[in-house]
Amino acid sequence: MTRMALAAIGLIALAAPARAASEADFKAAYAAAEAAEKEAGSLRNQWITTEAALSAAKKAAAKGDFDAAIASAKEAEALAKASIFQATSEKDRWKDAEIH
Amino acid sequence: MRSVLAPILALISAALAAGVIAQAAPAADTPDPAADAKAFRDYFVTKFPKVKLDDFVNGPYSMNEDMRKQWLEKEEFPPYDFALDAGKEMFAKPFKNGKTYADCFENGGIGIRQNFPYFDVKQGEVVTLELALNRCRTENGEAPLSYVKDDMASLTAYMAFTSRGKPFDIKIPDDPRALAAYENGKRYFYTRRGQLNFSCASCHVQSPGQRLRAEILAPALGILNAMPIYRSEWAGMGSISRRFITCNSQTRAVPEEAQSEDYRDLEYFLSYVSNGLPISGPGARP
User: Fold this and answer.
1) Which ipTM did the prediction report?
2) Model-level pTM?
3) Nearest Cα to A90, choosing from B189, B269, B36?
4) Is the CB of B195 less than 8 angstroms away from the CB of A95?
5) Which end of chain A has the least Cβ crowding within 10 Å, N or C?
6) Arithmetic mean of pLDDT over chain A
7) In what order do the strands lie in the sheet with B283-285?
C-alpha cells in the first residue's frame, strides 16, 4: 500500500509541469535589464550585444515564449552590467595605456 | 610675544614655500599636447625604424611590402577616382541661392584640408571639415548631407586631393575649452569599450602592422591623413564619420551619432598628434 502511494506521488510529480514563466516575470526581468542598459547609456557605453539581447527578449515575449524572453532579458542585464563595470573601471585606467 | 609669533611665521613661510614648489612643478597629469605629439611620433618611429616618417600616412602599406606593391599598382587607376570627379562637380555646383561651397571656406576651399578640424572659439567646439560642409549647406538653405554616405566622402575627397602634400597644421588655441576638447579626444582614443574590450589604441597603437583576420592594422600616426578612403570591403567611399562608427561596431560597442562631440574631439586629437605629416587623401584601403 505504501509502495503504491509513493508511486502515485511520483507519477503526480512527474506529470505536473514545472511552473511556466509568466508575463509578469518577463516584465520584471525586462525592466531590470532595461534599467541597467539605461545606466550604461548614461555612461555612453552601451554594447551592441546588449541591445540584441533586449530585442530578442521582446520578440520572444511577443510570441508568448516567456521562458526564452526571460532568459534573453537576464542575458541583457548581465551584459549591461558588464558594460557599466567596463565604463567605471576605464574612467581613469585609460591613462595607463597612454604613450608618454 | 616673540616666542608665540616665531612658530606661526615659520608655518606661514613653510606653506608659502610649499606653494611655490607646487606652482613650479607641473602636476603629473597637466595636459601638454606638444609633449603628447612628440611622444606619439617617437613611439611609432622607434617601433618601426624602417618606415619613413611621411610614409606612416599610407597606413597598412607602410607596414607590409606585399600590400604596398599591390597598392602602388592600384594607384595607377585608383578606385576613388570616380569620387574625385563627383566631388569636384558637387563642389562647383551652385546652391539654389547661387552661392557655392567655395564661398564658405578660406581660399575658396582649395588646399585647406590640413587645417581641419579646428577649435572654433566663438562656438566653443571642434569643427571638422564634414561639419563645416554641412553647416555651409544649411546656412545656404540646403539640406545637410548624410555623414556616412558617398556624397560627403566625395566632397571631402576632392578637398583632400587639392591639399595633398600639405602638412597637418592643427592648432590648439589658448582657450581651456580647446584643451578640454583635445583631452576628451585623447580619453576617447585610449578608453576600452564594447564587448570585445578594445580601445582605438588596442589596434592602432599596440598592434599596427599585425593582422586582424585578413587586414593589416594601420598605425595611429597619420591615420587620418589619407581620409576619406575607398574601402574594397565597403565597395565604396567612407568618410571619417563612417570609419569611427564602423570601428566602434567592430568592437561591439553601440556607436555614437556621426559628428558627436566625442568623435569630433577624437578627430581633433588624432589630427593634432599627426601634425607635420602630409595630407595624402583620398586613400584606398582593402
Assistant:
1) 0.83
2) 0.87
3) B189
4) no
5) N
6) 89
7) B236-238, B229-231, B283-285
Q: Taking CB atoms and an 8 Å cutoff, what residues of chain B touch A87?
A: 193
Q: Which residues pair with B284 in a beta bridge?
A: B230
Helix (H, G, I), strand (E, B) or coil at B14: helix
User: What letters, b where the CB count within 10 A reaches 16 and e where it falls short, cover B41-59?
Assistant: bebbeeebeebeebbbbbb
- The set of catalytic residues of B is 247
- Statement: B33-285 belongs to CATH 1.10.760.10: yes
Q: Tell me, rounded to whole angstroms, the distance of Cα B31 from its chain centroid.
A: 18
- Which of B13-27, B30-44, B62-76, B180-194 is least confident? B13-27
CB contact A97 to B (< 8 Å): yes
Interface test with B, best of A94, A95, A96 (most B CBs within 10 A): A94
Instruction: Give pLDDT tens digits for B54-69.
Output: 999 999 999 999 999 9
Inter-residue contact B253 to B199 (CB < 8 Å): no
Q: How far apart are CA B189 and CA B271, in angstroms?
A: 12
Residue B158's contacts (CB-CB under 8 Å, 6 or more residues apart) are: B83, B84, B87, B88, B90, B91
Q: How many CB pairs under 8 A join A and B?
A: 51
Angle at CA of residue A34, ends A33 and A40, nearest 5°: 95
Q: Is B192 on the interface with A (CB under 8 A)?
A: yes
Beta-bridge partner residues of B138 = none
Which residues in chain A are closer than 8 Å to B197, comparing Cβ atoms?
A: 86
Question: Which amino acid type is present at position A73?
Answer: A
Run of H or E residues at B7: helix B2-24
Residues B55, B41: Cα–Cα separation, whole Å: 12
All structural domains of chain B with their residue ranges: 33-285
Half-sphere exposure at residue B164, Cβ-oriented, CA atoms within 13 angstroms: 12
